[in-house]
Amino acid sequence: MKWLLVASAALYLFGSFRRPLFALGLGAGLAYLALRGISLGRLPLVGPHDTIAFFSASIGLMTLPFLFSPSLRNSSAFPWATGGTAAVFALFSLAFPALAMPLPPILNTLWFELHVALAFFAYALFTIGAIMGVLFLAGGERRLLDLQYRAALVGYTFFSGSMVAGGIWGYYAWGTYWLWTPKELWTSILWIFYTFWLHLRLRGAGGDRLLAWTGILGFGVMLFTYLGVSMLMKSSHSF
After folding, report:
1. What's the half-sphere exposure (Cβ side, CA atoms, 13 Å) at 16?
2. Measured on CA atoms in the order 132, 138, 140, 141, is the torsion positive or negative?
3. Does pTM top 0.90 for this prediction?
4. pLDDT at 72
5. What is residue 133's predicted lDDT score, i.e. its pLDDT?
6. 143 touches 156 (CB < 8 A)
7. CA distance linking residue 186 with residue 168, whole number of Å
8. How far is CA 110 from the centre of its chain?
9. Pairwise CA distance, residues 178 & 156, whole Å
10. Secondary structure of the chain in the HEC alphabet?
11. 64 to each of 20, 22, 23, 82, 232, how far by Cα in Å?
12. Which of 14, 122, 148, 172 could in theory staple to 158 by disulfide, Cβ–Cβ 3.0 to 4.6 A?
């Protein structure tokens, strides 16, 4: 079944030349997650293998509206960059074993699944926004900054929803909406970072290049919140 992830990565890369192939790459990634979910009897959202594969598919899914938009219809750099990023994470997921453990009772709630899914949709959009920033710095096209803002704004909305769902899940799991763990602290840092970034962008403060660079920095904050904290720190819900 893991061959679907390899196929997904290959199709994402070839999708930079033919956009329908990019969509097929997403289809292969979603098919893998669907088969995993059927075999587990739940959404595959536990463990590094499943979450990284889900992140890869989320990048592909969130890329589609941009990929077929008039602003990026003739761009070859954007599908190559997003497809390459999705491919890297699809292949990276293969470095971890696919766990088949039953879902712990503490995670057996819709609020947990909603919390994680919305977070990964947000992570994917923050990643796309960072790619827009890189492309703007490379080519200077102002429209890319506008698209970066839109991606980050929608991602921020998803992430805010994820935090609400996570608080409700935390109340049912631990009897409190908040625990002072590294994961939750960095989640708050990420939310505050994009709160200020979107505010500065909306006010037009800081200059185009600075906004592009800080949008790229947001990807680093996001990646550490997701992978860095889970791999380097102990937390109540790392992976």
Report:
1. 15
2. negative
3. yes
4. 85
5. 95
6. no
7. 18
8. 20
9. 20
10. CCHHHHHHHHHHHHCCCCHHHHHHHHHHHHHHHHHHHHHHCCCCCCCHHHHHHHHHHHHHHHHHHHHCCHHHCCCCHHHHHHHHHHHHHHHHHHHCCCCCCCCCHHHCCHHHHHHHHHHHHHHHHHHHHHHHHHHHHHHCCHHHHHHHHHHHHHHHHHHHHHHHHHHHHHHHHHCCCCCCCHHHHHHHHHHHHHHHHHHHHHHCCCCHHHHHHHHHHHHHHHHHHHHHHHHHCCCCCCC
11. 10, 9, 8, 10, 33
12. 122
Predicted local confidence at residue 205, as pLDDT = 59
Measured on CA atoms in the order 160, 162, 165, 169, is the torsion positive or negative?
Answer: negative
**Whose CA is closest to 63, among 115, 25, 32?**
25
Write down the domain spans for the chain: 1-103, 106-239
How many residues belong to the chain? Answer: 239
Task: Report the phi/psi class of residue 139: left, alpha or beta, with left for phi > 0 and alpha for psi in -120 to 50.
Answer: alpha
Sign of CA dihedral 85, 87, 92, 98: positive
Walking along the chain (239 residues) 10 residues at a time, the average pLDDT comes out as: 90 84 94 93 89 96 89 86 96 91 77 93 97 92 91 97 90 77 90 93 77 94 90 62
CA distances from 196 to 79, 91, 182, 219, 225 (A): 28, 33, 21, 15, 17
pLDDT at position 85 is: 96
Contact 17, 77 (CB under 8 A): no
